[in-house]
Write a structure and sequence with these properties.
About 60% of the residues lie in helices and about 5% in strands. The protein has a two-stranded antiparallel ribbon. The two termini are about 20 Å apart. The mean pLDDT is about 90. It comes from Limosilactobacillus rudii.
Amino acid sequence: MSSQSYSYPLDLSWTNKEMEQVIAMFRAVEDAYEVGIDRNKVLDCYKAFKQVVPSKAEEKQLGREFEKSSGYVLYRVVKAAQESTDKKIKMVGKNND
């Protein structure tokens, strides 16, 4: 798995369950870049993530914070999962390489 040296952008007002849903989304993004991931898993994680973060502005802010610390792009992974017809998606390259 990831040998990450960064933290996930979280809102401390979220419940433990909500934090787990957001973290699951960020882990799905990591997997998409590192090992590949089933596109349906990404879509399921994103659906749960949107229950916690319904605001597009907040989603973009969290995505930017995550990208800044990890180099992984939330938006790109979600878009690839939504547009792909392949069962598995694998992202190439990191933004901060």
